[in-house]
Amino acid sequence: MVTLFSQSLQEGNVYDGYAFTGNIAIYAEALQKYWPHLLRSIGYSAAATAIALLLAYPLSYYIAQKAGRWKNVMLVLVIAPFFTSFLIRTLAWRTILSDTGPVTDLAQTLHITDVLQFLGLINNDTLLSSKFAVIAGLTYNFLPFMILPLYASLDRLDPRLVEAAGDLYASPFKAFRYVTWPLSLPGVVAGTLLTFIPAAGDFINSRLLGNTQTVMIGQVIDTQFLRVLDYPLAAALSFILLMLILTLVTIYVRRAGTEELV
Amino acid sequence: MADYGAGDLRLVGLSKTFGDFTAVHPLDLTIPQGSFFALLGPSGCGKTTTLRMVAGLEDPTQGQILIGDTDITRTRAYQRKVNTVFQSYALFPHMTVLDNVMFGLKRKGDKDAKRKAQEALELVELGHAGGKRPNQLSGGMQQRVALARALVNRPEVLLLDEPLGALDLKLRRQMQIELKRIQQEVGLTFIHVTHDQEEAMTMADHIAVMNAGHMEQLADPATLYERPSSTFVANFLGQSNLLRATVRGAADGGLSRVDVYGTELLVEAAKVPEGLTDLWVGVRPEKLTLGESGGRNRLHGRVGDVSFSGVATQYLVRMPWGADVVVVQQNDGSARARLGEDVTLSWEPGREFVLDAAQDDHAGMDRDDTDG
Asked: Could you tell me if A179 lies within 8 Å of chain B, comparing CB atoms?
């Protein structure tokens, strides 16, 4: 963090070397140019996290409470994608969502694409190179990070507590709301953090599955560091992203901690 | 939720099978409203399964459950006016004690939940503990919270699933008296599931003894103890001496003469089933007297073991045919027999119970309770 911060306040270039000049103006410059990207990254990441939670919760609940003998097999299946690299997995989505592939065909036939187009999530009636694809990619890639902490939390849930709730006039929905959900909150918080934080800084999904309108801050930083070689700017952007995430997470954890659970 | 009105709890042909295994054979039982009823039996006898079916936590395979005239068999647990005190207490760890007790009332939309919950806590003498978390309380206190949480809803039937199992002896005795008192005060129907026969006899008005999914006998504690209808019940409740006997004829005063390994004894003729000649004559240990003053029936043996337990002394007396007879005598100050001493045991006819010799005299002896 210190190196990052000090690098951001330097000036110069790779050829002539860098000197620390305390150029604080770089932060203003960075924000001015790239605030849309920052906001977009937070937005996509939040969407992916929310969707991941919605998908992961029922799955984790099932594995933890209902799977019986199949529990370990299913857990292995959740982790199995990690055996291939992040990059390859994301590239695979390029093929899955390709314009001529069966998934896109089906989506078009069912007019799902019309809905998505209406919501501004895709362009030209195709699924790839769009906001939709980027968020889908993010959700998919970070889903295991949501499933595992949720599973751990739900595995510890004593089913007899849910029975007791039923005995005390709570319908299945109320039993979930007043007993299961509050007791699984530690897992929910852990899962959302483990998903949101890396997703916010991701650049591969938006590079491979998005277009010029979906550029995330991670991509910008990557470009600045490795192509344009503007280290001070890249460092400044990284530092801004770090502080932004830190602030959001702190607010989130505080709120989750003091929330009335019943 | 339907108000059932006053009504007995009736189980009609209620059974439960899990695949090939029958946990509860078709059971017919009527539990009078406002009574303290116990389901007693060893582990795996089906008592807990039966309880869970009444609670709605288990679906019966066949049969019906009725409260009064209302059939509740198909209703879900949260729709029944039945509450359970669980063996593990199942207190919600993320809520305070008061919130736990209020839970059922709040789900029903009771506006007065807080006051009623506080009252319930006072009833179980935990009025000051409302703000604590369950994990801050001792086992005994948690059990009382679980009881308050169930009671506060004033259910038609209160189910207790071995609620005193985790408590130490002294506390258990205390809670047995407490529960009985509360039941009488509140007037609800209590159904208590336990494997502790002393506990069942102390607390219940009526007991159903269960064994391997069948109900062996249904009666009040005294009848079960003095007139068991099977060797299982005879051995499961307290201890029994079962003497193999053959009927020889009649005697004056409504008695029958029977032969026990060469010794002639007298039993009450009315107790011997019509036409049965091979019997078990059952005598409880406390009915036997050391010496000849106990009555006309005499047995002779040698003391093989002496156990002093404060209130009483238990002797194992070896009979000539190799079996041990258990004798329990109150320590009333009179002389105690010594190890190896030859003694005479006596009792008056009429103090025995009689069972068919075809029954297994070891039934009910493998118990898992350690202090029964």
From this structure: yes
Contact B78 A170 (CB under 8 A): yes
**ipTM, 2 dp:** 0.81
Q: How far is CA B49 from CA B6, B152, B193, B363, in A?
A: 25, 25, 10, 22
* CB of A104 closer than 8 Å to CB of A184: no
Question: What are B's interface residues with A at a Cβ cutoff of 8 A?
Answer: 1, 55-57, 76-79, 82-84, 86, 88, 90, 92-95, 99, 103-104, 107-108, 149-150, 153
Residue pLDDT, tens place only, A143-196: 999 999 999 999 999 999 999 999 999 999 999 999 999 999 999 999 999 999
Give this prediction's pTM. Answer: 0.82
Per-residue pLDDT tens digits for B214-252: 999 999 999 999 999 999 999 999 999 999 999 998 888
Task: Say how many domains are in chain B.
Answer: 2
State which residue of chain A sits closest to B54, comparing Cα positions: A167
Domains of chain A plus CATH, in order, are 2-258 (1.10.3720.10)
B274: containing domain: 239-356
Query: Hey, is the C-beta of A156 within 8 angstroms of any chain B C-beta?
Result: no
Q: What is the 3-state secondary structure (H, E, C) of chain A?
A: CHHHHHHHCEEEECCCEEEECCCCHHHHHHHHHHHHHHHHHHHHHHHHHHHHHHHHHHHHHHHHHHCHHHHHHHHHHHHHHHHCCHHHHHHHHHHHCCCCCHHHHHHHHCCHHHHHHHCCCCECCECCCCHHHHHHHHHHHHHHHHHHHHHHHHHCCCHHHHHHHHHCCCCHHHHHHHHHHHHHHHHHHHHHHHHHHHHHCCCHHHHHHCCHHHCCHHHHHHHHHHHHCCHHHHHHHHHHHHHHHHHHHHHHHHHHHHCCCC
Q: At what angle do helices B113-123 and B97-107 cross, to 10 degrees?
A: 130
* CA–CA dist B197, B201 (Å, integer): 6
Please say whether the beta carbons of B71 and B5 come within 8 A.
Answer: no
Do B253 and B207 belong together in one domain? Answer: no
Q: Which CATH number belongs to the domain containing residue B292 in this structure?
A: 2.40.50.140
Q: Would you tell me which residues 180-219 of chain A have a C-beta closer than 8 angstroms to some C-beta of chain B?
A: 182-183
- Among B168, B192, B226, the domain boundary falls at B226
Chain A residue with minimal CA distance to B87? A160
- A 111-150 → B contacts, CB under 8 A: none
Query: Do B255 and B200 lie in a common domain?
Result: no
* Most B-contacting residue of A169, A171, A260 (CB-CB within 10 A), to test interface: A169
pLDDT exceeds cutoff 80 at A1: no
B70 forms beta bridges with B67
